[in-house]
Design a protein that fits this description.
Bound molecules: ligand C2E, magnesium ion
Strand order of the largest sheet: 10-11-13-14-15-16-17-18
Number of domains: 3
Number of helices: 19
Shape: elongated
Helix content: 40-55%
CATH architecture of the largest domain: Alpha-Beta Barrel
Strand content: 15-25%
CATH topology of the largest domain: TIM Barrel
Radius of gyration: 40 Å
Number of strands: 18
CATH class of the largest domain: Alpha Beta
Amino acid sequence: MAEAVQRVTLEHGQDVTSDPRLDRIVEGIVSIAAGNLTARIPISPTRDQIDAVSTGINLLAAELDDVYQDMEHRVESRTLELREAHRQMERMALSDPLTGLGNRIALMQQVELSLEDMAGGAAAPGVLMIDLDGFKEINDSFGHRAGDLVLQEVASRMLASVPEGSLVARLGGDEFAVLLPAVGRPSAHGVAEAIQASLGVRILVEELDVWPRASIGAHVAQAGQSAEDLLLYADTAMYVAKEEGPGLIRSFEPVMLYARQLRREMVSELRNAVDRDEFRLAYQPVVDLVTGRMQGVEVLLRWEHPTQGLTMPDAFIPMAEESGAILRIGRWVLRSALEQLAAWRAEGRSQEGFHVRVNVSPSELQNMDLVDYVRAALRDTGAAPQDLVLEITESAFVGGGDVETYSMRSLKALGVRLEIDDFGTGYSSISYLRRLPVDTVKVDRALIADISRDEGQLQFVDAVHRLIQAAGMEAVFEGIETRNQAGLLRRMGCSSGQGYFFSRPLTADQVGTLLASGSRLPLATELLA
Ligand code: C2E
Ligand code: MG
Ligand code: MG
């Protein structure tokens, strides 16, 4: 651009020569001020004061540009960091930290998306609900670390067994789910089978062999079903599979919902049964195999269901345990049994050493209040601690959890006697039992069922009996149904037994009459004769 020198008359009448570089300085400043930090004012060869000012402004602009770029860079990297953190939080909110699988929220989201796709014409999605069988035992017997390793291994096997595009989620504990975005019913079953097969291979956990198994419920969506329906139906089918035995696969059928509803009703009825006075107690004599006399009775719960009539414990105790109703029921049983003992005493019918045996369920043993409750019940009924034997199923303490051990030691300190029930059905060894404050071991009836026919089994029972004695405990044999079994056990040196051969469970009155007649059980006396 040609440099025209203009003459400008200033206010004071002085003439100055207007330098075009001044215009460029102004232009430059305007541009820089507008944010164009890379704008530079040209420097003329004159290198006079005006150029010095221009150079100064350029330097300032350059510096500003640096600062700005640095800021921009920082903001950018901070934004990236935040975005990554956000993504991670999202991932965490949607995933299970132990296995890295999706969680329930992720599953629900994906199920909803698949249902939308289905409404748009895609094939129906299917859901598998998977619950490991016997996982609690793995956790209890091998520890939580081993349990975690098993869950991780199971997770990766499931991932490897499902078709691409499926979502595997862990819903908590040992419960998993798989979303198959578009399947037919047979292929949902096929995937369930593939998962079962993958679990069928043993897992080596810290030198322990674990064979995981799972119960699987499957359901393929039908038009109009919501995500909740889909999960509920698959879950219902899983429940049925679980009830029918370990390692099974069941597809949802509407009738299953009805069964589930009945179950739910039963749980609520169970919760009310104590208040409605629907429980009764039966008493089965435990017999001294040497003298033939009744040593005590095992207290067995019966439920007079308002519509279904007399209901046996196997039909409702598991549900009472699962639902937590057992805590209240167990307290009722204990107190009623001790009150009955006091009543027999008051009638002058009880004899020295006569005791009641009360079954205590695993969840009661896990309850910190059990000991206080037993202490209060003994005090209120005036029963002596040694009049009470608590029967604890073997499986209840296999894990030897802290609370269980605490409960057992505290009960022992009260003077109550402890017995391991159904011995031989769980995993515990005699050497393990020795470490527990246990007085007696009740050998499960399955062990003696065949002793009359099977010489090997008889020898096995003999060995078990010796082991129990060697460990300083006493053995009681339950389920003695025949004279032959009673005779064999007696010859083996067993001192206590219980079973239909001697007596079926009796009413309180019948026990009172027996006590009054010197506790002699006719068949036992006959056996001794
Ligand atoms: P359990 O403690 O092993 O009780 C023995 C069960 O075997 C009783 O069944 C009894 O009637 C039955 N039995 C007795 N003699 C014989 C025999 O010679 N042959 C055969 N086949 N069976 C015999 P029941 O009364 O049906 O009780 C079943 C289980 O329910 C009990 O097994 C116990 O685990 C549980 N249970 C019963 N009452 C209570 C309770 O008050 N609380 C808790 N937590 N569980 C209870
Ligand atoms: Mg028992
Ligand atoms: Mg038993």
